[in-house]
Fold:
Amino acid sequence: MNEPSLLQSKLKSIPKNPGVYQFYDRQGEIIYIGKAKNLKNRVSSYFTKRKFESFKVKVLVDKIHDLNFIIVNNESDALLLENNLIKKHQPRYNILLKDDKTFPWICIKNEPFPRVFSTRTVINDGSQYYGPYTSAYAVKVLLNLIRQLYQLRTCKLSLMEENISGGNFKVCLEYHIGNCKGPCEGLQERSEYDKTIAQIRDIIKGNLNEVVSYLKSEMEILANSFRFEEANLFKEKIEILSRYQSKSTIVNSAIHDVDVFSIVSDEKEAFVNFLKVVKGAVIHAHTVEIKKRLDEPDEELLVFAITDLRNRIESSAKEMIIPLDLKIYFPENRITVPIRGDKKKLLDLSLRNAKSYRLEKSKRVAYKKAASSADRILQTLQSDLRLALLPTHIECFDNSNIQGSEPVAACVVFRRGKPAKKEYRHYNIKEVSGIDDFASMEEVVYRRYRRLLSEKAALPQLIVIDGGKGQLNSALKSLDKLGLRGKIGIIGIAKKLEEIYFPDDSVPLYIDKNSESLKLIQNLRNEAHRFGIEFHRLKRSGTMTQSVLENIPGVGSKSIEKLYGRFKSVEGIKKASLNELADEIGHSRAMTVKAFFKG
Structure:
C-alpha cells in the first residue's frame, strides 16, 4: 500500500487554502488530480475514511505513494488549474474529457481594406478575432452570409495608399465577377469599405437589428431620390439578413448573454451540452463526452465540463442556466436553475441536444460492433473451410421444383455476412429436359459465372451449393468449363446432417452445430431456398398463361418476372397502362407487350 511516514509528514504540512492536489503511484506517475476549497480537509479525508463511496476510490487510495499540492487564490482558480492539469497529464483515475477540437475564429485583419476570414490560429498582430466558435459549420454559414451581403477583397496585397496611387496593382477575376469593388486600383473609397466592416462587426456580434435599420434608412434615401435599382440592392440585403435571422433558434430577445449547460449520464460516461445564447438566439452549440473513472456524480462532471468549455471559448457571460445549483463553484456568476418559462425551454433544448448526441454515439458504437462481429464470423468461416481469401462475397445456389413441375433455380448473394437482396437472381431452367437437379445446377452455375466473366464483374470468394456431393460435382463441371476451378472456394451442404462437402473429398466436414460459421452457411442455404420457392410459386400461379407472355418477342424471363411481381396475372398485365408497364420493363418492351395483346 502506501508508506505512512512519507504521507503523514506531507499531510501535516498541507495548508487549509484553496488549491489542487496530485496523487502519485510507486512509479512516480500521477494517478489522480483533484481540487479543494480546503486542501487539508479534502486530502486528509482520503486517509481517514473507513468506508469509501465506491470500491474504485478504495483501489485509488491503495495505490497512493506520494502527493503534491498547489495553492491558489480561490476556488475558481482551483477549478481552472485542475482542468488544465487533468487535460495535460490525463491521470488514470480522473475523468477523461473526450474532445480535442481546436475551435475556429473569425478574423478581421488589421490592414487597410481588411480581409474577413476564418482561422484556428490567433496571432497578436492587432487584428480583431471573434469567437471561438464551437461549430465550423456555423462559421461557414456566417461567412457565406457576409459574402452575400458585401463585396470584400480576398487577396493578400498590401493596399497602402502609395501602392494604390502608384498603380502597382491590377484588378483580378474577383472584381470582374462582381465579388470585389477593386480597392487595389482605387475603385472603392476606404471610408465606404470601413462602413462595410463596421456592419460586419455588428453581424458577427449578433446585432442584426442595427444593421437592418441602417440598410432600411439607406434604401429609403435612395428610393426618395428615385434611384430604385440601387434601393432594390439594399432591399435584397435586408431580405437575406431576415432569412438568416429567421433560421436562428429564438427563445426570448430579453435573454441577452447566457451560457446554457445540461448533462445526461450513465454508469460509464456522461455527455454535457453547451448552448451560447446572445439576444435570445442560440449562436453556438457543442457537446462533449466524459468518460467516468471513479463513479463521479453529475455535479462533479458538470463543474469540470463548464470550467473547460467556458475557458476554451473565452466566455464572459455573467449568467449560466444549468440543471443543478452550482453557486458554490461559480460565485462570480449568476446561476439559474429554471423550473418554467423561456429559460427552462433553453435548458430543455440543451438537454435534447445532449440526449441526441448520446443516441447518435450509441448507434455508431452498435454499427462498429456489428461490423467487427461480421469480420470475426467471416474469419471463423475462412478458417473452418480452409479458404485462401476472406469470404466477404458469398453466393449460394438452390434448385426448386414442386411435384415435378416448373424447375427453377435461385442465386442469393451475401456481402460481409449480410444479404445483398438487390443482387439476388432467379433462373428458369432452359437446357434441361424434365427434372434433373444435377444438370439444372450445372446449367445455372455456368450461366451465372459466364455472365460475370463477360461483364468483368467481381467473382465471389465462396460458392455454396444447396445439396450433397452430386450437386457439388455438377457445379464443379461448370467451373471447369469456365476455367474457374481452384480460383473460387466452393462447398456443398447436405440438408439432413448439415454435412459440408469439399471438391475431391468424399469425407464430409461436420461443423459444430453452435458455430457461427455454420449458422451463416445455413442462413445462406435457407435464404436461397426461400427465394427459389417464392419464384416457383409465382411461376406456378401463372403456368397456363405465362407461356403466352413467353411468346412475345423481345420479352425475356426477367421482364416476365417483373410483370407478374407487380400485376399478378396476365389479365392484370393486359389492363395495365403503357406507363405502368414502362415503369417495370422500360418503354420499348412495354409498347411491345401492348401491341401483342391488341393484335
